[in-house]
Amino acid sequence: MKIATLNGIKVHYSVEGPVDGFPVVFSNSLGTDFRVWDKLISHLPTGLRVIRYDKRGHGLSEAPAAPYYMGDLVQDAAALMDFLDVKGALFIGLSIGGIIAQGLAAERPDLVRAMVLSDTAAKIGNEQMWAERVRAVRDGGIEALEESILQRWFSKGFHNTQNDELAGWRNMLCRTPAEGYIGCSEAIAETDLYSSTARLTLPTLAIVGSEDGSTPPDLVRETADLIAGSQFKVIRKAGHLPCVEQPVETAALITEFMKENGLG
Fold first, then answer.
1. pTM of model > 0.85
2. In sequence order, which residues have a C-beta less than 8 Å from that of residue 162 and are 6 or more positions away?
3. pLDDT band at 235 (very low <50, low <70, confident <90, very high)
């Protein structure tokens, strides 16, 4: 287990692969820890330096009291990469992790050479929607939202055939600290990156599950269109977490993107 004190909190992270391997940093979604990438990583090219971390309020990282701000989450990612002496990485962000990726690329272009934005957008939802979710969690815990969240996370096929695995994802979601879920929800609510993302010029691949109920394909495409030269791909038979439902196809898209842009 690796823990680093960054920006006053203890952050859980993992580093796999050779020290001189091309760095790939993964940032996970709201309500998950870095195990969300487990299925995907084994299908990526060998020799990469794979870095994963639990953002504040999630997994084994500390969960300070809300509110959190997107700037906090971006600075946490930057601090970890500085701590590990990583620059020019491929940053792969899922949902809120993709918002972090956009913010990091804008604020610290030395750290991010290219991005994969999975099931995310420059702005997700509105303040009223997030306020209702925060209120529900404060009143009844994450369990008050678990069914609706899981419906958005996974495709109909997954719900119909993967009951045992679904139980594991339910447990991961419900064991997320309430303060962490609330803090990150409030950070998403106040974030609008349309202007800064439109100024980005780095190589970008945007991907989305065809059955994503949180960030539908049209929303992800809209964000991809802000970045000149970006690619956009839809992954069939997947919801909000294509790295879980379709890891082979997701990894193939990332691998091809890496080859096309000389990454690794």
1. yes
2. 154
3. very high
